[in-house]
Design goal:
With about 190 residues, the protein is α+β, with helices and mostly antiparallel strands. Helices cover about 30% and strands about 30% of the residues.
């Protein structure tokens, strides 16, 4: 792996730039799973023709407001999912983070590692001060992973997400650079 990939890795996962070959796998494993995609995005799911350029996982150009990553297993470099910082606001030094693991990589505790790596990138590389995530209030694994990584709940936006025929609340969680740094020192 190159220098950035070594820096953005744990014993379990690494973050790297999105490769063109990743797009079809992410499209099939994440987007075409209607339940997964409907729970992961505020926009309604719609069918997309099998054209990599139309996939939401395609990265056409570099963008200062979004940092797209592919999540790979550290041991064998298998594609495990996607991660991103989005809504990067360089003036207020804040961003949102998101991640989705492919079904075969869920339940291993790797979300905590991915969140930690996104924090490392956001705070140490990009110089941000605040990272935020929003997740459905019934997404217990993500809430626990975020809490384990040091995120604090700021509240619930009640019935703010329309998911497959029902309204669900969104939990808003955040971590500040000083909190992240202090937690790392304590470990």
């Amino acid at each position: 792996m190159d220098g950035e990939a070594r820096y953005l890795s744990t014993d379990h996962v690494a973050l790297r730039a999105r490769h063109p070959a990743d797009v079809a796998i992410l499209q099939t494993g994440l987007y075409e799973d209607l339940v997964t995609r409907s729970r992961a995005d505020t926009r309604p799911w719609r069918p997309i023709p099998p054209d990599p350029a139309l996939s939401p996982y395609a990265v056409a150009t570099a963008n200062e407001d979004v940092a797209f990553f592919s999540v790979v297993a550290s041991v064998d470099n298998d594609l495990a999912g996607e991660a991103l910082l989005w809504g990067i606001d360089t003036h207020n030094r804040s961003a949102h983070l998101g991640l989705a693991l492919l079904p075969g990589f869920r339940g291993r505790g790797w979300s905590v590692d991915v969140i930690e790596l996104l924090c490392r990138y956001g705070f140490s590389v990009r110089g941000l001060n605040r990272l935020q995530l929003e997740t459905l209030s019934d997404n217990t694994p993500m809430i626990r992973a975020a809490e384990h990584a040091g995120f604090q709940s700021e509240g619930v936006r009640r019935e703010s997400a329309w998911v497959l025929g029902s309204f669900v609340g969104n939990v808003v969680m955040s971590i500040l650079q000083t909190e992240w740094r202090d937690a790392r020192r304590a470990r």
